[in-house]
Amino acid sequence: QVQLVESGGGLVQAGGSLRLSCQASGRPFNWYAMGWFRQPQGKEREFVASINYLGSSTRYTDSAKGRFTISRDNIQNTVSLQMNSLNPEDTALYYCAGRSEVFSGPSPNDNDYTYWGQGTQVTVSS
To answer: Which stretch of DSSP H or E encloses residue 108?
Structure first.
């Protein structure tokens, strides 16, 4: 069965950086697009970044552009999210997600993702 496990979350001060990682297993990882979503406490889940199956195309939510970078390693079966210049508004539970459509693109829609990790908490203090 497909499994996604996030890591790298933690507590940082505003202006700091974190790098989140997602380890995938259970299927040919390089066939599928991957994404990062986040859910602030008391709010709905929202799109952050996504990357196509090959790693040649990416998408970002407006607030992430210029600060966050999504990447993937199709040999190690991982997808990462480098987050710089963090602010308290970035505080959320961050989820790794995978699509089920082969050779898929970097959709920003959570309905397009079938597989989800358990989440890793990111907390940014002011």
So the answer is: none
What was the pLDDT predicted at 28?
80
Sign of the C-alpha dihedral, residues 86, 90, 91, 94? negative
Q: What is the mean pLDDT of residues 4-12?
A: 97
Could you report the per-residue pLDDT of 25-62, keeping only the tens digit for each?
Answer: 987 888 899 999 999 999 999 999 999 999 999 999 99
Question: Could you give phi then psi for residue 97, rounded to 5 degrees?
Answer: -140, 150
Cα-based angle 65, 61, 29 (whole degrees, multiple of 5): 100
- The strands making up 18-25's β-sheet, listed across from edge to edge, are 3-7, 18-25, 78-83, 68-73
Closest CA to 92 of 114, 61, 66, 115: 61
Q: What are phi and psi of 89, to 5 degrees?
A: -70, -15
